[in-house]
Amino acid sequence: MKKLQNILSFLIFLVMLGMVFSVSWQIFTRFVIHQPNIWTEEATRIFLIYITFLGAGLAMMRGDNVRVTVIADRLPPNFQAILSLLMNLFSIVFLLFVVWYSFPLMHRLANQPMPVLRFSKSLVYLALPLGALSMILVLGERVLQSAKVLLDHYHLTEDHK
Asked: Any bridge partners for residue 113, and if so which?
């Protein structure tokens, strides 16, 4: 998982560099040369989409995603593990739907070019399954951790009988 985290971090870094260049070029051409380039706005929007979806997976890997744990923190450890297992499984199911339905969408948009940059809109929507798959990997690992906690707890209670 650490290797995937490093890859995502590097990809986000590259996309962020592209976005910084695009915005800087837009500012330079608009206010210095007084002839703004039209491609920079579209490129910046695409960069932001990729940063959002890839960043969501990276945030989840690092544990930086937003969580509300008011109720879960008050539960006993075995119930926390059950709740975590259920929530992660529900999240995986949702993300699988996202991945599943993003491919027909990408297929429909494959022949539609972006208005200015002229490449396929499906490349923009590729960020959706990439981000969802990275989150699925993280959640799968968390499901295994929760299942291990539950099994360990079950074996401990069985040994004391």
From this structure: 120
pLDDT recorded at residue 157: 62
Tokens of 40: 């920079």
Containing structural domain, residue 15: 2-159
Concatenating the DSSP letter of every residue in 115-145 gives: TTT-SBHHHHHTHHHHHHHHHHHHHHHHHHH
- Torsion of the alpha carbons at 63, 67, 14 and 31, rounded to the nearest 10: -150
**CA–CA separation, 144 vs 140, rounded Å?**
6
* Structural domain count, the chain: 1
The whole model's pTM is what?
Answer: 0.85
* Average pLDDT, consecutive stretches of 10 residues, N- to C-terminus, the chain (161 residues): 91 97 96 93 96 94 82 84 90 97 95 94 95 95 87 67 55
Cβ-in-10-Å burial (0-12, 13-18, 19+) of 135 comes to: buried
